[in-house]
Design a protein that fits this description.
CATH superfamily of the largest domain: NadA-like
Oligomer: single chain
Low-confidence stretches: none
Bound molecules: iron/sulfur cluster
Strand order of the largest sheet: 2-1-3-5-4
Shape: globular
Number of domains: 2
Distance between the termini: 24 Å
Order of helices and strands: HEHEHEHEHEHHEHEHEHEHH
């Protein structure tokens, strides 16, 4: 069944998703096919990606993941194929694979702007288990290991809670790591007086601060990188989109061609079937 999807500002999006486009990923797949057997390579895309990339995965037996189910999805992928091509967020892919015991040297990073093999040697690709696309979330990129150390020095006993889109050096030092849902749950379940420094998108941290005055919540970085593309969806645009919808003149309607929708849905359905 088709549903209508409305984007209140067509300039809104995700800068991380924009770091992998279909041409680049198709080119990557073609180059990889000269070095390894792509029949044994599972494409996995983070949900923050274009519909065309979800369809790319769907066409090749691949799958979508979220930050909540990334590990289950990688386990699903490895039960079927030897290797994974993970895009667009290298950090989620790396952090999840490290948790599963995959060695760092089996995770080459694919630079889509390099001339050949994403800047890797054929040997590195042959030895790989997870090929990580060189993409990242700018918002989570600002959190650094020194921020963790600073908070620990200043507030002994503080708990560091970070999203797996943060770099591995930060995740390695955290007390708790998890998806947005896991971050919310961790705070909800903590006893009053718990002190947190949280490394994720600022608005979520501010919301948690407001909702949990019984806890002490800090933003992990002294520097803020707002998500300019996501924040384009503001109240004014939402109101405009809803008013037009009510008036029968919908604006910002997203149209996806049937083939793309069909294969993207396949990849999404596989994800929904993963326990
Ligand atoms: S914070 Fe912005 S750039 Fe980062 S994943 Fe979310 S939408 Fe994308």
């Amino acid at each position: 069944e088709r549903v209508t999807v409305i984007l209140p500002d067509m300039a809104a999006g995700c800068s991380m998703a924009d770091m992998a486009d279909l041409d680049q990923v198709e080119d990557c797949w073609e180059q990889l096919s000269e070095v390894i057997d792509t029949e044994d390579l599972m494409p996995v895309t983070y949900v923050n990606s274009a519909a065309s990339l979800k369809a790319f995965c769907g066409r090749r037996g691949g799958i979508v993941c979220t930050s909540s189910n990334a590990r289950s999805v990688l386990e699903w992928a490895f039960a079927r194929r030897r290797r994974v091509l993970f895009f667009p967020d290298q950090h989620l892919g790396r952090n999840t694979a490290l948790d599963m015991g995959i060695r760092l040297d089996a995770m080459p990073v694919w630079n889509p702007h390099a001339d050949w093999l994403g800047g890797n040697t054929p040997e590195a690709i042959r030895q790989s288990r997870v090929i990580l696309w060189q993409g990242h979330c700018s918002v989570h990129q600002v959190f650094r290991p020194e921020h963790v150390q600073r908070f620990r020095q200043q507030y002994p006993g503080i708990k560091i809670l970070v999203h797996p889109e943060c770099m591995m050096e930060v995740v390695a030092q955290a007390d708790v790591k998890g998806s947005t849902a896991a971050i919310i749950k961790a705070v909800e379940q903590a006893p009053p007086g718990t002190r947190w420094a949280i490394g994720t998108e600022l608005h979520l941290v501010n919301r948690l601060k407001q909702e949990h005055p019984e806890q002490e919540i800090h933003f992990l970085s002294p520097v803020v990188c707002m998500c300019a593309t996501m924040y384009r969806i503001d109240l004014a645009h939402l109101c405009w989109a809803l008013e037009n919808l009510a008036a029968g003149t919908p604006v910002g309607v997203i149209r996806v061609d049937d083939q793309t929708a069909h294969y993207a849905l396949e990849a999404l359905q596989r994800m929904l079937e993963v326990k």
